[in-house]
Amino acid sequence: MKKLFLILGILIAQCTINMAQVPTLLPDYPITKGVSAPFAGFIRNWLIVGGGCNFPTIPAAEGGEKAYYNQCYALDIQAASPHWTKISDLPYPVAYGCSVETPQGLVCIGGMNADSCLTSVFRIQKDSFGDFLLHQLPSLPETIDNASATMLNECIYITGGNQQLRENALYKLDLQTCDKWQKLSSFPGPQRVQPILVNDGNKLYLIGGFQAPSDSSSSILSHDILCYTPQNDQWEYAFPIPYGNNKEKRCMAGGSGVQTGTQLILTGGVNYRIFKNALDGKAGKDYLTHAPSWYKFNDDILFYDFTHKTWTTKVNISGMARAGGILLYREGCLYMICGEIKPGIRTPKITVYPLKKEE
Asked: What is the CATH classification number for the domain harbouring 267?
């Protein structure tokens, strides 16, 4: 298997990946009005989406109450006429957790709902009869929500977000033993809520995120990338996130990212200036009433080449200007799953972009 991955990595490295021009759409997600911050990932050819939250009746701008969901659905992307199938409900309503694709199934970690923040971890898996089942895994040592997670060398890593112990801890679960979560070195600097965590096959990269304001200081939006080396359990500064087309800083909070054999791919998330003003109470009473375009969610896609250490940006990509959406990569395609199109307003759209390779 490792040899196969190496061969695929070499093939990808010989190509430049560029966006195809026209996206396709899968059937809308079944929950009316869509959701933000669900669990999402692939189990073989099945796209799994579960949980998430929205404002189902009264909009957020009018003081509506946020609803959390425990429904879970699956869609066979290889079917002639794909349609969503309801599978087993999640153990509880949940959003703002982390989901990680593994060979055994989709691991869902932490999150929160209207009642509490969560430590629970479970795996959605498909048995030999074709049924989707839930398998409990070791719980987190503390509640964590709005974090990010990735898998490297058969281990799941999670960090960032709101941590119960108010640290910037990094935790690891070895999937070979599934014994317990191991606490590793905390990342330096401010808190990073809603960051992106990916890897290049050797190291972890923690991207963006924000720290809410306190009584003594304004909010901090991180517009850089930290790097973690598992071999020595150390964090270091890696490089900045590219500025936007308007030369504004970019924090990627609420954005999403994936890695391929040789590239890191980032998209979505909020506008640095507009979001910081909102966090610091400077956005005005009409903040939630504007059209989606006013909020300037990032609608471009950033490609970082691990080998050449260069960035490529594809701008004005339809369907990517979302916060709390989940970006997935499978067999040469990018999938953007649900998310917000503006604060408080979700979408049920599943946007699919084929990536074309140019010699």
From this structure: 2.120.10.80
pLDDT digits (tens, 9 = 90+) for 217-249: 999 999 999 999 999 999 999 999 999 877 899
Domain that holds residue 256: 13-358
Rounded to two decimals, the pTM is 0.93
> What are the Cα distances from residue 28, in Å, to 32, 35, 301, 350?
9, 11, 22, 6
Q: What is the biggest distance separating any 2 CA atoms in the chain, rounded to whole angstroms?
A: 58
- Rounded CA separation 69/191 (Å): 27
Q: β-strand 220-221 against 210-211: which pairing, if any? A: antiparallel
The model's pLDDT over 283-334, given as tens digits with 9 standing for 90+, comes to 999 999 999 999 999 999 999 999 999 999 999 999 999 999 999 999 999 9
* Angle (CA) 98 345 277, round 5°: 85
pLDDT of 241-259, one tens digit each?
999 877 899 999 999 999 9
Report which secondary-structure segment, H or E, holds 219: none
d(CA 165, CA 114): 20
Q: Give the C-alpha separation, 359 to 306, whole Å.
A: 18
Domain presence at residue 4: no
Outline where the chain has alpha helix (H): 2-13, 272-279
348 domain-assigned:
yes
